[in-house]
Amino acid sequence: MLTLATDLEALTRFGRALADPIRCRLLLALRDAPAYPSDLAETLGISRTRLSNQLACLRDCGLVVAVPEGRRSRYELADARLGHALDDLRTTVLAVAADKTCPDAETKGCC
Questions:
Q1: At what angle do helices 21-32 and 37-44 cross, to 10 degrees?
Q2: What integer pLDDT is reported at residue 1 of this predicted model?
Q3: Which of these, 24, 37, 73, 100, has the minimum number of CB atoms within 10 Å of its CB?
Q4: What average pLDDT is seen over the chain?
Q5: pLDDT at position 96, please?
Q6: Partner residues linked to 66 by β-bridges
Q7: In 3-state terms, what secondary structure has residue 77?
Q8: What are residue 40's phi and psi, to 5 degrees?
Q9: What is the pLDDT of residues 11-63, one digit of tens each?
Q10: Which PROSITE patterns match (predicted)?
Q11: What are the tens digits of pLDDT across the range 47-106?
Q12: What angle do CA 83, 31, 56 make, to 5 degrees?
């Protein structure tokens, strides 16, 4: 059984990962299928350096893993259940007043 501290840490890491639009797009892309960094950079329209930083964050958060394939690495979600969680979050309807913003919307950072 997980402890409350472990549960909170896991949710905090997931929340921080989702706080950045590029990381969200990465997670959604990897939800569809594993991919190589060059393909992800092209799909997302970002530099490889920026992509590398975001993938490192997601790896540090424990959400993605790099699978070595010869001289390359393929990235995928660390657990298939993350894809289901992303789908559940994506399809959940949140009631937010149009004139309200998230208090932490200006806070950026990584896990």
A1: 120
A2: 54
A3: 100
A4: 85
A5: 53
A6: 75
A7: strand
A8: -65, -45
A9: 888 888 999 999 999 999 999 999 999 999 999 999 999 999 999 999 998 99
A10: HTH_ARSR_2 (PS50987)
A11: 999 999 999 999 998 999 999 999 999 999 999 999 999 888 877 756 555 566 666 555
A12: 100
- Distance, CA of 23 to CA of 21 (rounded, Å): 5
Do strands 64-69 and 72-77 pair parallel, antiparallel, or not at all (unpaired)?
antiparallel
Paired with 75 in beta bridges are 35, 66
H/E stretch holding 67: strand 64-69
Give, for 65, the enclosing helix (H) or strand (E): strand 64-69
Biggest alpha carbon–alpha carbon distance for the chain: 51
96 bridge partner residues: none
Task: Tell me the pTM.
Answer: 0.79
Residue 85 has which token pair? 């969680």
Alpha-carbon torsion (12, 36, 85, 99), positive or negative:
positive
| Domains of the chain and CATH, by start | 10-91 (1.10.10.10)
pLDDT on residue 93: 56
